[in-house]
Amino acid sequence: MYVCGPTVYDTAHIGNARSVVVYDVLFQLLKFCYGKVTYVRNITDIDDKIINAASEKNSSVESISTYYTRTFHEDMRSMNYAEPTYEPKATENIDYIIKLIEHLLQSGHAYESNKHVYFSVESYSEYSALSGKEIDELDYGNRVEVSENKKHPGDFALWKPANDTDYKLSSYWSSPWGEGRPGWHIECSAMSHAYLGQDFDIHGGGIDLQFPHHENEIAQSKSAFAGSVFAKYWVHNGFLTVNKEKMSKSLLNIIKIRDLLHSGIKGEVIRHALLKTHYRKPFDWTKNVISESQETLNKFYRLLRDVDVITIEKIDAEVSKDFVEALINDLNIPEALVILHEMATKINRTNNENEKL
Ligand SMILES: [Zn+2]
User: Fold this and answer.
1) For residue range 281-322, what is the model confidence (pLDDT) as tens digits?
2) Which domain covers residue 48, as residue numbers?
3) Ligand 1: distance of its center to the CA of 276 in Å?
4) Is the dihedral of CA 14, 19, 20, 26 positive or negative?
5) What CA–CA distance (Å, rounded) separates 232 from 223?
6) Could you tell me the distance, in angstroms and rounded to a whole number, from the CA of residue 356 to the centre of ligand 1?
7) Angle at 182 between CA 177 and CA 187, to 5 degrees
8) How far is ligand 1, taken at its centre, from the CA of residue 234, in Å?
9) What pLDDT sits at residue 24?
10) Which residue, of 240, 264, 289, is where some domain finishes?
């Protein structure tokens, strides 16, 4: 399983955390069902956003990405997740990325133009099959950069030449096309291939990554490796809003995991709150989500404290099959949580009856 990981330029917010906890449950469920699972979640440690943060803070790209990788791990570990098997960084795979771009150039799926290398969307006949968009109706200018260097407006950069800021911040590498840095999309195609091979089972990420990021990953990987299916299954977690609004810097409504933890909320409460809504559905964060999850966890902890282990294990054995069945049905965590509540009710009832005896 490959999941697109964070771009490390700021501390993690609840949207980043939703992806982490959803794929963590999937990872743990797959391990439970199949024993061995290889889970790769990358770190994007070179990107415009990181370069901007380094410029603003008069820092280096490496210090910014190292610092925010550390805070990401600290914040996410508070939510009790299982570490991915591999966590590759883009900057540690530049040679691999360059080889993949060379391969796409040789096979006619990419072209050089004014020190850039672009992927040609017209060279790949199934382009946009995942998102179902028409190639000529794509959102050019908004989510796809417009440039006169491109043959088609949907073409996207595999390699970008270094600019003055890149030279100042040393955020560039040598390549056959001059000094520069890779585009974001090619990083994931290179890292998934490096760690999982040309075909693998599951590719995950937020629904906002479906187009263009995942579409571009498919186009690159399937073009580079003839006969490849790339990912057999695609899993996308839904959007997250705060009081029905998109989280954004301008609305000052970004909820950071770090701030929640510092206010005394435990990671397990945040984890429960983020998993209560079906992973594919939009999730709206309101002021009640934390108090409701806290109440639920208190209820479960009271039960564990007050009821003997034998009674709990007996009821657990009765419902565990239903619990797993809920999870293997498109990761229906809300249904699995309902089963836990029913289990709590049964345990209470059995315990009360035992006490009467
Ligand atoms: Zn990705």
Assistant:
1) 999 999 899 999 999 999 999 999 999 999 889 999 989 999
2) 2-240
3) 25
4) positive
5) 16
6) 58
7) 135
8) 12
9) 98
10) 240
Please identify, among 240, 269, 296, the residue that sits at the C-terminal boundary of a domain: 240
Same domain for 232 and 314: no
d(CA 78, CA 81): 8
| pLDDT value of position 148 | 85
Distance 223 CA to ligand 1 centre (A): 17
The reply to whether 20 falls in a domain is yes
Cα-to-centroid distance, 29 and ligand 1 (Å): 22
pLDDT tens digits for range 278-290: 999 999 999 899 9
What's the CA-to-centroid distance between 53 and ligand 1, angstroms? Answer: 21
* CA 323 to centroid of ligand 1, rounded, Å: 31
Structure tokens, 190: 């290179």
pLDDT at 64 > cutoff 90:
yes
SS3 40: strand
Whether residue 312 is found in the same domain as residue 211 = no
- Ligand 1 centre and the CA of 218: distance in Å? 10
- Cβ atoms 304, 312 nearer than 8 A: yes
**Upper half-sphere CA count for residue 82 (Cβ side, 13 Å):** 17
Q: Is 206 exposed, middle or buried (0-12, 13-18, 19+ CB in 10 A)?
A: buried
158/234 same-domain check: yes
Do 130 and 11 share a structural domain? Answer: yes
Looking at the chain, the whole-number percentage of residues with pLDDT higher than 90 is 87
Number of domains comprising the chain: 2
pLDDT in tens, 68-96: 999 999 999 999 999 999 999 999 999 99
- The model's confidence at residue 137, banded by pLDDT at 50, 70 and 90, is low
More confident call, 194 vs 135: 194
CATH of the domain at 84: 3.40.50.620
Residue 11 sits in the same domain as residue 99:
yes
What distance in angstroms lies between residue 147's CA and the mean position of ligand 1's atoms?
23
Separation of 344 CA from ligand 1 center, angstroms? 40
- Phi, psi (deg, nearest 5) at residue 172: -150, 160
267 alpha carbon to ligand 1 midpoint, in Å?
Answer: 26
Confidence of residue 135 (pLDDT cuts 50, 70, 90): low
Whether pTM > 0.90 for this model: the answer is yes
